[in-house]
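FIELD: query
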Amino acid sequence: MQRARGVPSWCAIVLPVPTILHIPCDLAGGGAERLVLELCSRASPGFRHAVAPVHATGALRPAFRAAGVQILDLDRRRGWPGGTAILRLARLARGFDIVHTHLWAGDTWGRMGAALAHHPVVVTTEHNTRPESAWRRRLSVGMHPLSQRIVAVSEAVSRSLLEGGVPASKVQVIPNGVDLGRFSPAPPRLTAPRRVLGIGRLVPQKGFDLLAEAVARCPGLQLDLLGEGPQAPALRAAGAHLLGWRADVRPALAAADLIVIPSRWEGFGLVAVEAMASGLPVIVTDVPGLRDVVGEAALAVPPQDVEALVGALRRLSVDAELRSRLARAGPARARAFSIQACVGTYETLYAELLTAT
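FIELD: result
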């Protein structure tokens, strides 16, 4: 609860603080979960957030606890949620003013729970340009009518939603953000690059298998991968140096000479913003979500093209002027994606939807 501004304490009017329940898949360390953490931990005094992950796992759980965010578990660690989980989500939803869902599992079971509770305000953030399978996409599209607003993290995601039949009146673009104050450009690297960095989940979407093959064909380069996932054994066998998952990526960025984001598809790409803000030369695959983020501040290659990756790595290895140009362009481009602007826009959306109910 909060006191109305300008009202003396002796005649204070106590106003209810709007409450938001976030329902993600889990509390892993990906961009979606990091956005939820930022929305919860950076909330203005006019909002109160809690999180109810569908699965009670994830490397960011300690960070949520440290930020004082209430975690409402469904007592699930793996497998498909059943009716009990949906009923639990429905009961939780009734205690909050807004239900905000994220990622496929959170969107699916969160919206079913909210619908069962007849909840009037459901926000869904779409973090990717497409689910990992066609049947998931069909189910997701079928559930979009249950959301009052669908937030796209990039123009590419917005286009995919509109192409999927979501009315334009329901879609709003709010780009993800980064705490840019935590990153500063490193001094120019004058020597030829040696350490190539990749950051993200070790899953097929991220394309690290292609990057490992490309680096193996470039003598003198070493591939460091920061992340966890089912592809870890195969990537290690392919010669990648696995760093595991780390909450703070700055030491890895500082140790790298360049970073590659070889995704097969992508909704946004927080890593790209962090790398650009750090003044690292960046190579990305030319997929819509990443292109929206990097603009002309990165070297882009076609997706799923090992030959193109090899060519880009070799080009940056010998072209010091190109490395310098990308390192200079990155910080300026990254300034378009501040976390403060992102959180402020979400809070404006929350207020707008609550006013309309």
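FIELD: remark
The two ends are 20 Å apart (CA to CA).
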